[in-house]
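Q: Make up one entry.
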Amino acid sequence: MKNTINTTKAPQAIGPYSQAVSINNLLFISGQIPADPETGEIVTGGVGEEAHQVMKNLKAILEEAGATFSNAVKTSIFLKNMDDFALVNEIYASYFEAGNYPARETVQVSKLPKNVNVEISMIAHL
């Protein structure tokens, strides 16, 4: 059975999509950008602050679905500038238990929604 997951603790969708969808014990989380869920505004302070907000948004959606970062099996990271890889990678890693990382790819893209520097999507097992 397909279920739509929504929480006010993560930014609301800015288009015709859901924050997340679960089906057959899998959770598919839409790409999260660094929007503050309370204001809808993009956080400022550079790619480091953006990466932390993205991870907080992912965490809120995972929690709404009854999961944690330890349930993550796959992530996709989209960066506006691959020169930011090391910093984003360090911040990303800090949200997982060492050695329990999901599969992942990181790609540079020419532009992201609302002109942010980082977006991350995730698949988790429930």
